[in-house]
Specification:
The structure is a homodimer. The first copy, chain A, is α+β, with helices and mostly antiparallel strands. Chain A has a single domain, classed as 3-Layer(aba) Sandwich (NADH Oxidase), CATH 3.40.109. Chain A has eight helices and five strands, in the order ααβααβαβαβααβ. The first copy, chain A, has a four-stranded antiparallel β-sheet with strand order 1-2-4-3, with helices on both faces. The radius of gyration of chain A is 17 Å and the shape is globular. Chains A and B meet through helix 1, helix 2, strand 1, helix 3 and helix 5 of A and helix 1, helix 2, strand 1, helix 3 and helix 5 of B.
Chain lengths: 195, 195
Amino acid sequence: MSTSVIDRTASTEHPVLDVLAGRWSPRAFHSENPIDEAKLSSALEAARWSPSASNSQPWRFVVARRGTALHAQVVEALRGFNQVWAGDAAVLIVAIAETATADGVPLSHALYDLGQAVAHLSVQAHSDGLVVHQMSGFDPELVQEFADLEPRFVPTTVIAVGELGNITALPEALQARESAPRVRRPIDETVILSA
Amino acid sequence: MSTSVIDRTASTEHPVLDVLAGRWSPRAFHSENPIDEAKLSSALEAARWSPSASNSQPWRFVVARRGTALHAQVVEALRGFNQVWAGDAAVLIVAIAETATADGVPLSHALYDLGQAVAHLSVQAHSDGLVVHQMSGFDPELVQEFADLEPRFVPTTVIAVGELGNITALPEALQARESAPRVRRPIDETVILSA
């Protein structure tokens, strides 16, 4: 299987780092190459050093490599189209928010902080030549069951990590999405008040 | 006022990008230099191109430059120690999660996606020589009032952005925190299941 060369670098209106402008979320993952373990370790290390409210680090990860029973369990938990393509990814990581401490004290910024940690993970992975696609479409209760999680641990996304695969191996409906232009709301509509 | 030279680069166990290892959250901000507008635009642009669930982009920002009435309002909303140091920052940005669409459909990943957008913002800013410190300690209702926000828009953090200032200008209690070693939980305790 050959790797497609796809460049979907964002058309930014102000200069941003190549690793941020060039990052996107493919669905075509290389279905044979195993994960580069050094790159995976670096990606997790990047998440580790992310900032969080009072350094609470309210994030946990389930890391499942393709070919393992755990990977199959994560694929099983995916919903809809995600189950069609994401199983090809060399690694599926479940990102889990710690929404309260063991003593029951709520961690109000757990989801926010988890998002930051995964952003750091994805920036590091992309910089190392891997691709990353985060999914919210999965059944968190299934993950809570097979990972035997206390209710305070909330599975929030499943993250496909691996090498870019060949777009033509995807079903046609997904191929179109894969090459559509990347679009974002103008910054003027995001900055709602400024002085 | 001279700028302190402080290097708090993380002691990572696996190689990560300099911009991720070197990023930290200072409290000493330069209290005179205005924000570099080009760098601020790049930081917001980086946030803009962040990924989000179904590309929902559930983030909004209030951008307040030091010396404006808006900046004073944001400082007023800060809690505790944050009010001591954060007013020095050239810009205070309120990061706001869009927790439901205008039609009332919940956006379950709004906080998570907002965290990612702010991570991208902070990585870009740090790469451009700015420093960033996110705060959860503030009164979101005060912000909702002065920014006239619908309840579905939830102010989540206030982000100080500017140039690094002189640590000796901080109260002594804060100086100690500023030079303490950066610590994180070992990755083995974060990856709770692996195969």
